[in-house]
Design goal:
alpha/beta, Rossmann fold, 180 residues
């Protein structure tokens, strides 16, 4: 099987507005440029994979079933905009957990790459936080950090400089397809 490049995306603050611990579909809103940007990279053959830290599960704020309901709603919203996800991967652990899946660790990207036949060296990680950039860097991807992310966009969980900084997902998408 020939491996393909993909675009990995953080969920909160990148694809949808960052509403802490939100699993209420009625509160789900796309960030500026999200649908157009996602559609653009998908039209250029990049599978789209969401990778998200979801510590609300470990903290007892919601369970995995509530997150799955939100995922289903999000996928329907994306489909209505002409966008299909290749995968949705999440870490249910808290910040102090010793796991390999919580960003900035690259475990979610590695898991998706193995399951979906993704070439990490030709792939991109787009997120609004330093931990997203660090996870992408550790997985061997090129990285984009969105300046339009929510509070805490410059967090201490990742110290890597992104390859690019962009205002929103549409600008990031143009960067990705321009350098593919």
């Amino acid at each position: 099987m020939q491996l393909v490049p993909a675009v990995f995306l953080d969920k909160d603050g990148t694809v949808v507005e960052d509403v802490p611990y939100n699993v209420d579909p009625a509160r789900l809103r796309f960030t500026r440029g999200a649908i157009d940007g996602l559609r653009l990279v998908a039209e250029h053959g990049f599978p789209l994979v969401l990778v998200s830290n979801q510590s609300g599960i470990a903290r007892g704020y919601f369970d995995a079933a509530a997150l799955m309901r939100l995922q289903t709603h999000l996928e329907r919203m994306l489909l209505a905009g002409g966008v299909r996800l290749a995968g949705f991967y999440f870490c249910p652990h808290g910040p102090q957990a010793d796991c390999t899946c919580r960003k900035p660790a690259p475990g979610l990207l590695h898991e998706a790459a193995a399951a979906l036949g993704i070439d990490l060296a030709r792939s991109w990680m787009i997120g609004d936080r330093g931990s997203d950039v660090e996870a992408g860097r550790r997985a061997g991807c090129r990285t984009v950090q969105l300046r339009a992310g929510g509070p805490g966009g410059e967090d201490a969980l990742g110290s890597s400089e992104p390859d690019f900084r962009c205002a929103d997902l549409l600008e990031a998408a143009r960067h990705v397809i321009g350098t593919a």
